[in-house]
Each structure stands twice: as structure tokens, then as C-alpha cells.
Amino acid sequence: MTAARPKAEGPPQPLAGEPAARVLVAGASGLAGSLAAELVWHHPRLELAAATARSEAGTRLDRLHPRRRVPLYLDELDLDELEEVDAAIVGYPHGASAPVVAGLRGLGALVVDLSADFRLGDLPSYERWYGPHGDPDLLEGAVYGLTELHRDAVREGELVGNPGCYATAAVLALAPLAAAGLAGDVVISAASGVSGAGRGAADFADVSENFTAYAVDGHRHLPEIEQELAAAAAPPAGEASTGPPHLTFVPHLLPIDQGLLASCFVTPARAVANDELRALYEERYGAEPFVELVDAPPGVRDVRDTNLCRLFVAAIDGGERIACLAAIDNLWKGAAGQAVQNLNLMLGLAETEGLG
Amino acid sequence: MTAARPKAEGPPQPLAGEPAARVLVAGASGLAGSLAAELVWHHPRLELAAATARSEAGTRLDRLHPRRRVPLYLDELDLDELEEVDAAIVGYPHGASAPVVAGLRGLGALVVDLSADFRLGDLPSYERWYGPHGDPDLLEGAVYGLTELHRDAVREGELVGNPGCYATAAVLALAPLAAAGLAGDVVISAASGVSGAGRGAADFADVSENFTAYAVDGHRHLPEIEQELAAAAAPPAGEASTGPPHLTFVPHLLPIDQGLLASCFVTPARAVANDELRALYEERYGAEPFVELVDAPPGVRDVRDTNLCRLFVAAIDGGERIACLAAIDNLWKGAAGQAVQNLNLMLGLAETEGLG
Amino acid sequence: MTAARPKAEGPPQPLAGEPAARVLVAGASGLAGSLAAELVWHHPRLELAAATARSEAGTRLDRLHPRRRVPLYLDELDLDELEEVDAAIVGYPHGASAPVVAGLRGLGALVVDLSADFRLGDLPSYERWYGPHGDPDLLEGAVYGLTELHRDAVREGELVGNPGCYATAAVLALAPLAAAGLAGDVVISAASGVSGAGRGAADFADVSENFTAYAVDGHRHLPEIEQELAAAAAPPAGEASTGPPHLTFVPHLLPIDQGLLASCFVTPARAVANDELRALYEERYGAEPFVELVDAPPGVRDVRDTNLCRLFVAAIDGGERIACLAAIDNLWKGAAGQAVQNLNLMLGLAETEGLG
Amino acid sequence: MTAARPKAEGPPQPLAGEPAARVLVAGASGLAGSLAAELVWHHPRLELAAATARSEAGTRLDRLHPRRRVPLYLDELDLDELEEVDAAIVGYPHGASAPVVAGLRGLGALVVDLSADFRLGDLPSYERWYGPHGDPDLLEGAVYGLTELHRDAVREGELVGNPGCYATAAVLALAPLAAAGLAGDVVISAASGVSGAGRGAADFADVSENFTAYAVDGHRHLPEIEQELAAAAAPPAGEASTGPPHLTFVPHLLPIDQGLLASCFVTPARAVANDELRALYEERYGAEPFVELVDAPPGVRDVRDTNLCRLFVAAIDGGERIACLAAIDNLWKGAAGQAVQNLNLMLGLAETEGLG
Question: Three-state SS for C294?
Fold first, then answer.
């Protein structure tokens, strides 16, 4: 595949030596896609082959999103014209993404897809929450890109379905408990900034100074969370499963732009102590470059514009409940940042490269 | 008791005819106390006898709080000089309040106390959360002023302990379930604007664009919530109690000034349907002037600057969990508004007077 | 004219005795129109005959705008069906308003128009800024509804063009200087909350945490300001005019919902002292119910949800410059509040009625 | 000078090879000082020798400021113990800074001082605005560190007084006009986020949803602006000066954390056209790495967390007024970012190093 060299004004892309891969960002006009383009543009080892958009082609990316430091004009996506593209991050809406991903895979490109199209291994579950799937055959080989849980699979993967923002925070918070058989009954009360809903989704007058729950009777990220906690809880061969947890997930809308907090409340099967919990999380995440275990409840602005997940866990109510709080930036670890983290692994680069 | 006539500049207090009572607001320099003074000042049937403050005496209230339309100078409180005061709202900090309340009661004034000093009927519980009590003898006759639950007692009361803001929202949300024996296991994930923490409590740089949990291992409003839900769940004489619920309460700090949402998640003893829930709440609150049952999750800004509690209840997860969401303005229904609501009842006035 | 009785749920409109007039609010789905409907609904002397909207008919107003306490369904506007309507507030967009106003005037209703269609006495000026006018003949009898400057004309008026929000603040700030021949050279650097731009105008992601100027080369409120300052500066018969001031007006967008500050910097023809300025403003506005002269720079949140204009004036730079700062709520004194203030006068009611 | 090696937890300082200099940040507990420490910590060529604070010694910097990625404990400053420190950034308050700077200079360290102590060349002017100076003798050799105007002097300087945030934006906006003799009469209406006032300076309840002017009769950054515009306007030897401009500067407080906009309105001696203005600014700033000339009014969030100044200039009102709008991040280009920019030059490094 060859992409026309980007028509850039201003300084050229800052690369340190020969690029490891040429990367296309398709659907770069949205909030997550444009951040992906920016991360690739400033990535020391990747070359941004092109950034495309369906309706904004011809616009310079940093004019459309003045905070993105990418002096590059958006192109239309023409798969027939593409050459020499090694990998792609796709930022299309659910449903519209699968055909584009199929085309890119057909050309041999590694793909990280930001939509929900390749997150759910179970097709009926996808269809129930999102409608008909654009390319069910591709589902089978897709890897769920929650890096910390599926690092090896991501490394070998050719198509990664990047997790939803709520799912990223909630599953990181709960997976150690699920794996330890402690996540019997779970309430996730989560809150996200407005950018989680996409550009143009929120009228200032409705959001500012407000706080409200939404999707109380079921949010699309729920099946992802269920899928991953069930997998985390799967017993070793020969042992009986503890069964899926009773899981409630209710999101809220915060009057801020970026940031997501998942406040998880778990009723464990037996009383637990803080020492045991801390040890469990330390063992699981102590070596993770993007998970920080903290000893006070994390604030979302403390991880803003970073790929970090800050995690706090505590036994409360005399050990009869566990509180796990996970703060991320919904556009970074919850979308474009994790996409680059995954892409680094798929390309054999250091996982943290370009995400400092 | 006589209070020196308030030294007011600007327009006189807008009264419709002879006042029903002369009311002192003691501790009127804080956020809740100053709102109480404003509500009394504009109340058609109450006369603001004086507004006092410990450290801001001599300052005009609308200079100290430019949003309060009260052209009145703050006085020092001198109980020996007070005359002709029929009632008082006291806005002192926990611990400092009890002695002032005792003095006012000694002068025969009806009192609504905004602090925690008269909320908990159980002295050891008070001492555990707040330290030594300033006047334990007064506790006995005090009424917990969650109006909708204790209207008759408030009407007869001479000393009302006004509920905490979180407790107001959570107990209103959960009392119908508790009374129906449905509140077996409860998680309350609540969030409040900054004014809930008092003037000067929050540095802008720490709060803006942020969202974080606090007091994860126990917040002072918890014993109020437990007390009231236990009372609501008390079985009729002769029947066995269902026991206290397993209750978790974790507050969060919102990057806004006013507004509080209590998101309550209840695991009922048996599966329930929406019709049953709606009927339960309609029966309990259908005639309440300040409780609105709504059919979509309420936003905190929709009740800002009102004494309303907007309540949404829904059976979720196939009836195996109940979500109850209660939105209030923490300074109104969560503090000064409810204080006036209670005072109206104590004085034989219409409950809604001065709260339009 | 008769309007079908409003199909209200919930409590009936709170009226004190027989209404003085039945009032239609046409175009009640927008931010200013819906506030006008709310103010009329709660007005002690006005009856809300109907609230109409072009595309939202059939929706309950307090569902569309949860903060508006009006349990009333929006109607379609059908002038042929209207009866017994004494007056109307019209909240249509510029250009679309004139034909509706003409129809209502033809039915004999007094009209306050919130659009720009009846603000500019000079037709070519209107056409330059807004395009063709929908009913130029009506322009002649229209009164510019900046109440404090044109109270007598408003009282006699049958059609009032309600001022723009920026013009309201800027002209109130500057008129005393213009009348005193002191407003030779004027820079107005103003800032407004997002609601000034109308519902849906601002994407949260563009506005939050931001501050920026717009319309630097000319904003539509400029000709209003010029018209009114020229009128205020008109010399008595027989004296020479000082000529129009050199006037620059640049607006900025604030990351808040409601509130507008006009920061005016005037280079006077001669050095002036604070005493002279204070006397000038005191004389002009001392008796005004909705203008407050303050001795410190006013904040926009201090006048939020009120019809007040808070004004601060000071001689600075050794008397060689004058700073006038005017804070209003753009939806109240800058739109719907002033409309009711004008309507009160047109109907012979007390000017402040329903605006407490 | 030797500083004890920083007691760091977590990852070591990320350095690329041998550091060019060991840098002390004294006064690193404030908003600007802590950012300076973070910028030095992540600087590829500088080594953070120590970060000291007067009252927070012993606290880990990223605990005190959770957004700062510096796993380093704050030390007490003990000049007698310091060794091997090549340079320092000092973040002490005005007045307290001069003695510390004197001590560091005595040890031979290059110093960038963030306070006002070394900004004003004229001692009486300093004393009028700030009170007695702590070390007047040091004033003489100090360089005013607005890099774009004094690059050569900074490069040679041993003590640089880093400019105030308002002065940085205003002088960058106006210097080209002053140098061209066009800045005869100037009104600067500026607005800053809360962090400009320092940690703890702003109560959330006073700032949120608000906008207000302050220091209307004179702000401390005014003499800096006057000093620099007078210098910029200095005629070549032998020509007559056009005299100092008539300058008004009024700041406003924005309800955001970071960001500053200077909206400058200039009455030129003669009418000017946009082409001339654009050419003037292009010539002056076209090659500057941190000044971006933009063709639409800049928003403060577009430069947040960057060292950029975005500048927009336009002839308005038929060329009889010039609008110059300059947006910066008050903590970066307005404080710590510019300090590192200056330090880079003083140390012979690339000016942009560590500021990407």
C-alpha cells in the first residue's frame, strides 16, 4: 500500500531515524481518531502515512482540532490508492468500521480498530447491542485489546479491537478480584467527561454545572465488561467455575471534557483485608508501565493527557465490601493511547514508545 | 428575646402583612447559613430578626456573599441581648452548635440546627463520628428533620436537627424500599458540588476538571443514613425485623458549585418489576410538594436553587437490582431550604411558604 | 384572540387574583423564549395564554428545558385560532420574527420582540447586518426597549424591540458618559456565557476550559450600541453635537452558561475624577430598580438568574481613562427578563412585577 | 555546589546521555515552581539536582501535585550544603526571592528567577509596586527574560528575571506595533485562569461560573509592560522618541485553571491595513519557535500545556483600531516554560529542548 505523502505545512514529522512502520489513521476527524493521528505524528518510530476522514477531507487537522499539533491535511480514504501502509488505526463509528477494517486487512495491514466492531467475541451479543455486524468472519481472529490482560495475544495479533473507555477502567479495576474468585457481586458506578460521547454530542447548556446518570437500563460497554470478567474468572482446567458475577454498570456524565472514573463496589464471597488486596493488585500490576497503584482515591485530572490508569483498592465496611476506583483519560487509555500501546506491541516496538 | 433591629441599607424586608414569627439566623456567614438568612429575609411571613456571625460581624451580608440579596449587616450573637426572637436557624460547625442551641432553647426559641449535633439519636454513635457532644441532654427531644419522613414530629418539635445533604438524598431515595423490606443490600455512590464542603474548603486548582471519591472508608453522613433506613424498615409491632441493610456509602467531589446526586443500587430480596416500584414511590411521595418522581435520570442542575428532590427509580438487570437516583441542591433541600421547610411546619405555616 | 387553554399537567399557574393580561409566548422552545414563558407563568398578574414553538409543539416545556418550572405543552402557533390574547413576547430568529409580529399586531396584541428585527431605526443599517427586513413598515413605530433609557416610550409603545444582550450591558454602562459628552473614544471588550449564542450553538468540547474572542471585525450588536450612544449624546436643540464616538466592540466567549460582562474603556475628552463619575451615575441610575451601582468590579455570577445590571465605574490612569464594567445575566436583563420588564410597563403594571 | 542526590522513588530521571547541567529548582512546591521541576526532570539534557520547598520539605512532589510526574521528595534549601549545581530556577514569592538568588549567584550558579524581583530595571518603580527590594545591587546585571525580545542578552545573562504572565502575552502582542511607532494609545483587557494567582488563592465558590475584573486601578504587571513597550519603541540614536504610549491594562479572572488571553486594542497614529500588520508580525515572529501567528482569534485551551504564544492581529474599524490577541498558558510561556526556554539559552542548549 502507498499513501500519498501527507501534504503537511509547518515542521515535518519529528522522527528519530528510519521509521519502523508507516501507519494510516482512518477516521481521523473525531476526538479519538485525531488524537491517534497526533500520537502517531509525534511517535519517534512511526511515520504517519496519511490521516483520512469521510467528510472533512481537505481540512488541516490542526485547524479542525486546534489542540492537535499535526500540520497535516485530511485525505479521503481510497483503499485502491493506498500503498506501503504497514498498519492502521481505524476510528470509524460502530458498524461502519468493519468494512474498512476488512479492506485494510485484505491489503495486509495490521489494524487496531477503535469501534466496538471487534470487541465482542460472541456475535449474538454484538447483534443485540449494536445490530447486524459488517463482517462476522473477521471477528474470529480479533484480539480484545486490553493490553494488560491480553499482552501476548496482542503481540501476535493482526486485528485488535480496542476496548471501550468504560470497559478499560472497569475491567482493569476488577480483573484481579475476578481472577481470585472474589468478584461475586459487582456494582460499577462510573462517570465520564463529555469527550467520551464524541464531538458534537453534548450541548454545553445541557452539560455544564450538571451531573446525571444515563443508560441506567444497560450501556453498550456492559457486554465487554462481562466478557472480560468471565474470562478472568475462568477456573483452571478441572476446577468448577464460580459462575459469572452479578454485574450492574451505570454510567454518569461529568461536566468536564476528558476523564473517566470507574467506582466499583464488590461484595466478596468472604471478608477480605487490605493487605491481601494490595498484594493481589501489586502482583498483578506492579510491573505494568501504565497502571499505577495509589494509596488515595485517584482524581481524573491527575491522569489527563496520559495513558495511565490509576487504581485504588480498599476493603471497606469491615472487609465485607471492596471499593476499587480506576481513573483514566477516556481519550488516551480509553481510546487512542491504548491503540498506540497495542500497535507498539504488534509492531515489536517498546510498549511505551510515543506515549511518554 | 429582642434582637436589635437589623441595620439594613437598601430596600426593607419584603413582608406581606404582620410576620408570623421573628427569626434569628445564627452563623449566617457560611454558605448554608447565608442562604438561610436570604430565605428568611424574602419569606413572606417571617421577619429576619438578626443574622449573626462569629468572625464577620459588621460586614454586610450581600458584600460577603454577593449572590445573597440581603442588605443587612451581620451582628455578633449575644444571647443576653436577644429579645423577641421566636425561632432560630443555627449554622454553626459541628460541636460548636450545641451550646448555642442550648442557649436559644433556654430563651424559648424554636430551633432548627444545621449541624450534625442533633441528627443522631444514639450518643455513642455521635461520639464515634464527631467527638464529645456539647449538650447530650438536648439530644433526647430533638427531631430528625427529614421532613417527608417525620412531618408530624417536626410539626410538634421544638428542636430539629436538620439532616446532612447526602443523607437527605439517600434516605429519600431508599426509604420506600426499606419500608417495603426490599433494601437488603445497598450501595450508595454519591457526588456533591463543592459548596457541600463549605466556604474555603476547596482550592479551584484541585477541583476544576476533576472528579474523585473521598472518605471511602466511612463518611460522617453514614450513621444518619443507617439510622433512618433502620427506622424506615422497622417492622410493625409483633413482626420480626428484617435486620439492618448492608450499606456502603461512598461520596465523590464534583467540579461544580451546587448540586448533589445520590446513585443508589439496591439488591432486593426478591426480583421486582418497574410497576411495583413506581407504585411504591407514587404512594409514598405522590403528594409531596418537594419530591418529584421523574421518568428519566435527573440532573443536578435541574434542581439547582430549588428545594426539590427529583427521584428516579427503576428495576434493572432483570429486576435483580434496583437503581434509585435522587438529585437535590445540597444548599437547599440538603441544608437551608429544608431548614425553612421545617421551620414553616414548626410555626404552623404552609410548608412551601417562602420556598417557591 | 383566544388561545386554547394551555394543556397543563401539575399545578395550575400561580395567579394572585384576576390577571391583568393574557400573554402569548411565541417561539418558546429556545433559551430566551422558554425563560420568557416561565416568567409569565409565575408572574402574579399575567396569564400565560399559550407557549408555542415551530418544531417542538406537543412537547412539555419542562421536559424540553428541565430547569423551567412550566408544566405546559408547547402548541403550534395558529394566528387564525388565537383569541383573547392581549400581549405577546416573540422569540423567533432574526428575519423570521417580523411576519409573526405583524400578524400579532394585526390582531391588536402588544408585542415585545426578542429578535433584532425591531431594534434598529435605520433600515439600511438593519439590511447591512441582517439582510432584507420582513416588514419595514412596522419599524417606524417600534420602540427600542432598553427600559432605563426609553421608559416613557416603552410605556406608550405597542411594539418594542428588545435589545441585544451585549447592547444592554454596554449601553447601560456608557449612556451616562455619552450624555455628559465624555464618551469620545470607546473600547468595549465584552464576554458572554454560551447561552447567549442559543441552544445547540456550542459544542462542549470547544467551549469548556476555553476563552476566545470572536466577531473581531464586527458583531451585530455594534449598530445598536452606536445608535443608542449617538442618541444619548445628542445635544439639546441649538447646541452643536460632539459627533459620534469612535467605538470598538469585541465580544469573547466564556466557558460558562449564563452571564455577560461588558468591560468598557473610555478616553474622555478631559480628565475626570471619581467623584464626578459616581455623581453622574448616581443621578442617572440611583432610582432604577434593576441597576445597582457597586463599589467593586461586579462578577457575572452575582447577577445570575436576576434582572439586575451591576455597574462599576472608575477613573483610572490618573483620570485619563474611565473604566465602566457592567454585569448582567444575558438571558434575563439581556433578553427575557427585560422583555417582561417592558411588558409590565406597556400593560400599566409595576415595572418590577414578576421579576423578584 | 553539591545537592544531595534526589531521593526518588519510581523510575529514574529520563536523561539522554551526560547532562549538560545540574539544575536546582528552589521553591518547587508552588504551581509554577513544581512545573519547572517537572520540565527539568523530563528535560533530555538537564539533571534535576534537587527540588526544594520552604514548608513542604519531605513531601514527594507528585503527591503534593498529583499531575506532576516527578517521583522526587522535596528538600529544604541549604545553600551551605549545595554543591555542583550549575543553574537554578527560583520560584519564591516577590521579596523573598532576592536573598536566595543572591546566595545562588554567590555560588556561581546561573539563575532564572520567577518572581518580580528582577524584572524592573528601575528600582523606584519596583519599590512603588512591591515595597523594599531585597538586593538592589543585583538588579543592574539582570536581564528581562522575554526571550523573543532579549534573546542575545539572555544568552549572555547570568541572572534572568522571568516576565509576569500578563506581561509576556501583552508585550509579545504589542512589541511589533511599538517598534513601528504604531502603539500610541493602548487598552489591554486581559483574562487569566486561576492558576495565575497561585495555589490556594481562589475559592472554588467564588470563581466557578464567574467572570470579573480586578485590580482595575493598577496591576503589578503594568510597569513591566510599560518598560518593555518603551524599550521597543525607543528610536534609533539621533531620532526623536514618540514618547511612551497611553496604556491601560485591566485583568479579569476566568473560571478555568490554566490559560491567559491578552486582548489588546490599539489606536494607531495613522490608519493601517491588514497586509501591513501581517507583514510586520511575520517579519518579527515568523522564525520564532514558540510564537504562532494565526488567522483566527486564538483560544486559550489550544495552547494549554504548551510553551506557545498564539497571536492574532487585525486592523478593525476601517483601520482606525488594531486588535491584537495573544493566548498563552500562564504556567508555561507565562512562567515555568519560558524559564526553561531562557535556561536553555543560558546553557548553550537548543532553545526548544525539553519543551516539546
Answer: coil
Amino acid at residue number D86? D
Q: Which of A32, A85, A76, A83 is CA-nearest to residue A53? A: A76
Q: How far does the CA of residue D67 sit from the closest CA of chain A (Å)?
A: 5
pTM: 0.94
List, as one string, the DSSP characters of B252-267. EE-SSSS-EEEEEEEE
Task: Write down the pLDDT at residue A10.
Answer: 63
Q: What are A336's three cell numbers?
A: 487512542
Nearest Cα neighbor of A335 from A15, A38, A21 is A38
- Selecting from D14, D66, D209 the residue whose C-beta is nearest the C-beta of A299 gives D66
Distance CA C250, CA D173 (A): 17
Helix (H, G, I), strand (E, B) or coil at D214: coil
- Is residue C1 scored above 60 in pLDDT? no
3-state secondary structure A55-87: CCCCCEHHHHCCCCCCCEECECCCCCCCECCCE
pLDDT score of C242: 64
pLDDT, tens digit, for every residue of C164-191?
999 999 999 999 999 999 998 999 999 9
Instruction: Return the residue of B nearest to A318 by Cα.
Output: B217
Task: Quote the crossing angle between the two packed helices B165-179 and B222-233, to the nearest 10°.
Answer: 20
Max intra-chain CA distance, chain A: 63
pLDDT of residue A231: 93
Residues of chain B with C-beta less than 8 angstroms from the C-beta of A329: none
Closest-CA distance, B238 to chain D, in angstroms, reads: 51
**Contact between B13 and B48 (Cβ < 8 Å):** yes
- Say which residues have a Cβ less than 8 Å from residue D210's Cβ, sequence separation at least 6: C256, C259, C299, C300, C301, C302, D253, D255
Q: For residues B105 and D32, give the distance between their C-alpha atoms in angstroms, rounded to a whole number.
A: 52
CA A267 and chain centroid, separation? 27
D257 with B31: Cβ contact below 8 A: no
Beta strands B291-293; B212-213: pairing state: unpaired
Q: Using alpha carbons, select from B235, B124, B313, B244 the residue that is nearest to residue A317.
A: B244
Q: Could you report the per-residue pLDDT of D70-89, keeping only the tens digit for each? A: 999 999 999 888 878 999 99
Active site residues of C: 165
Q: Does C35 touch chain A (CB under 8 A)?
A: no
C314-331 pLDDT, tens digit each:
999 999 999 999 999 999
pLDDT in tens, A208-218: 999 999 999 88
* D210–C255 CB contact, under 8 Å: no
C interface mutation test: which of B290, B302, B325, B329 has the most C CBs within 10 A?
A: B302
Instruction: Reply yes or no on whether the pLDDT at B244 is more than 80.
Output: no
Q: Which residue has the higher pLDDT, D204 or C258?
A: C258
Contacts of residue A12, defined as CB under 8 A and 6 or more positions apart, other chains included, come to none
Which residues numbered 246-285 in B keep a CB inside 8 Å of some CB on A? 246-248, 250, 252, 254-259, 261, 263, 265, 267
pLDDT of C293 > 80? The answer is yes
Residue B236 Cα distances to A344, B174, B184, B281, D171, angstroms:
65, 19, 18, 20, 77
Q: How crowded is residue B259: how many other Cβ atoms within 10 Å of its Cβ?
A: 31
Give CA–CA dist C104/C85, Å, rounded.
9
Task: Count other Cβ atoms within 10 Å, centred on residue A71.
Answer: 18
Is residue A325 a contact partner of residue D90, using CB atoms and an 8 Å limit? Answer: no
In terms of CA atoms, which chain D residue is nearest residue B256?
A: D208
What nine digits make up the cell of A90?
481505524
Q: Is A309 a catalytic residue?
A: no
Distances in Å between the alpha carbon of B294 and those of A30, B277, B319? 34, 13, 19
Calculate how close chain B gets to C269, using CA atoms only, in Å.
Answer: 34
